[in-house]
Structure formats: structure tokens, C-alpha cells
Amino acid sequence: MALIVQKYGGSSVADAASIKRVAKRVAEAKRAGHDVVVVVSAMGDTTDELIDLATQVTPMPPQREMDILLTAGERISMSLLAMAIHNLGIDAKSFTGQQAGVLTDEAYGKARIIDVTPSRIRQTIAQGSVAIVAGFQGVNPSTNDVTTLGRGGSDTTAVALAAALKADVCEIYTDVDGVFTADPRIVPNARKLERVTYDEMLDLAASGAKVLVLRCVEYARRYGVPIHVRSSFSTHTGTLVTDEPAPEGETVEQPIIAGVAHDRSEAKITVVGVPDVPGKAARIFEVVAGAGVNIDMIVQNVSAASTGLTDISFTLPASDGAAGTAALTEHQPDIGFASLQYDDTIGKLSLVGAGMKSHPGVSARFFAALSEAGINIEMISTSEIRISVVTRADSLDEAVRAVHTAFDLDSASDEAVVYGGTGR
């Protein structure tokens, strides 16, 4: 008998038929003797529809009211799923994030979990019932206001509850069968990974892999919560994200490379004609940070001896592009640069694998594969277990396939199946 936390994404509870299918899976786990806690996202595109509705009412909806509005999607899912489980003869109770004891800070739309006190969830489990929790939301203990965790916040809710309840495993159900060596939508013959370390999954998530949200992996690593990534549309074993060694007698492949990730959501700003003197680079990034913009990759060109000027390029989320350029333009006089160039037609490609730090030749093979495919590289960033490059967005798919093949990651037998359409 185990305590299992299951999380189902929007594509898994998209309609009544999907909710009934999830209820059947939950009921099977309960009848097998397990204690089950379920975290649900909003149905299908409900969150996007609520956002569209708000912007039809006002072009600038207040953040507090937006958070209250957006939590409605998960509340609909949790109550419908509880009803469906009841219909199968098993008692189930639904809880909002506040009722489940998810405590958050005051940052509307992107709140962070500061504590989880799941006394009502423990009581429900002790009574033999299934607890259904609305993901993506919590309450600030100081203001008693509802806050949301941002996109993919239900993953984080599930892992946080699993940590607080000391669950045996947190099962994240998506529309693919696990973590693959590349996005199956781009590389149909990508291979499913049996196990991935927390560090590898962190880099994959940070590099654009959408199967798990970065924050939930960080939380899982911090509290040692094993994550089992599975599909709600099949009964196949998925991918286990953990640093625990494989059980004795279990043969688990330990590849050099875990996978190839890509990201189309970034843009590049080039600050042209920056005086190459101490303090200027620091000032640029102070201004960008002050605008609340996160920076990913940075490249500084060699200074031209004749002018004493250099160019500094960096990538950032495309959604923060306007804020970043506006902040730098405002401070152009005191920084002293000549101009700004903004480019949102880029893509990032990353090769991730814990084994690369002890295997020479990985970089050579990586760049040779891109060269043979005719892919031009604009920026490079590396860590112990990751190599990332920026290229043109229209050549990103080809680059992913070229690198995937070059590292023998293609599956010779099966073609990956995408049951839904979102990857969540």
C-alpha cells in the first residue's frame, strides 16, 4: 500500500469523457489498496478562455481579480472529477488550494509556495476517501487573498503536496508516455527514457522541454520526491525522475545524452556600441534586472581597438522583450551605447546529459552535426551537462533532428505517440 499523488493536466480532463477516464484510473488505484490524492488543472483551454473573457471586459484587468477568476477553471475540474469518482462507488472530496493548505506569497499571477499544511487532506485520506485538489492556486496567509502560481503551476502544486504528505511517488499525467529524447512532435522516432536525474530534467525543462515545469522539478529535487511522468491515455510505464539508484537486478540504460530540447519563446537584444570600460556591462544588466526581466544567454564581442566600443547580446523571454528594450532605451544616456537591435526570430537548441562531462568529443560531434545540416550558430552557452546554441527559428526543427540523429538517439522500433496536443 502506497500514498500516491496524481496530477492530471488540461488535456487529460478536457471534456466529460476524459474526466470519466481519469476517474476510472483513480478508482483503480484506490481499489488496489493505495491512498490517492489527485491534483487537477483546468479543463482543456479554459484558462485561455477566461483570460480572453477578462480582456474583453477591460484591457487591463486588476491582477488580484485575474487570480480569483483564473482559479475557477481548476475548481470546475476538481468538483466534476469528484462527482465522477463518486459515480464509481468511491468517496471523493474536492478542495481548493486554500482548503488544501497551500500557502503562497503575494505575487499575483506568479506566486511561490511558502508552505503546505495539508491537515484536511490527511484527514480525508484517513477516512478512506480520495482527495481532489485544485492545482495552480494557493492563499497568502497575510492578506488571505487567492494567488496563482503561473503557467504549469499544477505540477508544482502536486509535487509540493507529495513532499508535505511524504508520498511514495508523484505521478504527473500528460498526453505523452513519458520524457522523450526530443519533442515527439518534431522527432517522431524519439526514444522514451526510463530514468532521468533531477539535474538532467532541470536542464531539459529550462531549455524548453514542456513535459515538466522547471519549478516542480526544483521542488522535487529539494525534497527528494520521485516523479513518474506518464500518459493518462495509456497504461504504459513512463519515465521516473529521481536520483535514487535503480533497484538491484533492474537493467537501466545510462546514456551519455538524456535528450535534445528546444525553445521558440526567446528573443535576442543586442546593445550596440557599448564603451568597453569597467562597469558598463554591470549597468546594462542592472537596468534589465530592474525591469523584472530574466536573462538566459550572454555574449560580448571583442572590443574594437580603434573605437574602444563593443557589442553585448543576450537572450530573454520574448514576452519580456518590450520591457527590456524600454528600460535600456530610457537609460541610454547614462550607459552610453549607440543603439539597440531586437530579434524575436531566434530559437534555442540544447543538448543535455550528465554523461557528457566525462566523455570527450561531445561538443565536436554536436557542432559537426549542425555544420553538416547547414545550421548557422549565433550564440553558445555551456554547463557541465548542457550545451545550448541560438540559431534561426525557421531552422530549429531541422537542427533538433540533426543533433538527435548524430547522437544515436533515434528509436529503431517504435514511433512516439502524442495522445493530446499540448504536451501537458
Task: Give an overview of the whole structure.
The protein contains 12 helices and 20 strands. It is α/β, with parallel strands linked by helices. It folds into 2 domains: about 5-250, Carbamate kinase, CATH 3.40.1160; about 255-410, VC0802-like (2-Layer Sandwich), CATH 3.30.2130.10. The strands form 5 sheets. The chain has an 8-stranded mixed sheet, with helices on both faces. Strands 13-18-20-19 form a 4-stranded antiparallel sheet, sandwiched between helices. The longest helix has 25 residues, at about 65-85. It is globular. The relative contact order is 0.12. The mean pLDDT is about 90.
Query: What number of structural domains do the residues give?
Result: 2
Number of helices: 12
Mean pLDDT: 92
**Cα distance spanning the termini:** 28 Å
Mind sketching the topology for me?
Layout lengths: L2 E6 L7 H16 L3 E6 L5 H12 L5 H25 L4 E4 L6 E3 L8 E4 L2 H8 L3 E5 L2 E3 L6 E3 L4 H13 L3 E6 L20 E2 L1 H9 L7 H10 L3 E5 L7 E3 L17 E5 L2 E10 L4 H11 L7 E3 L8 E9 L3 H10 L1 H4 L3 E5 L2 E7 L9 H11 L6 E5 L2 E7 L3 H11 L18
Helix pairs in contact: 1-3, 2-3, 5-7, 6-7, 8-9, 11-12
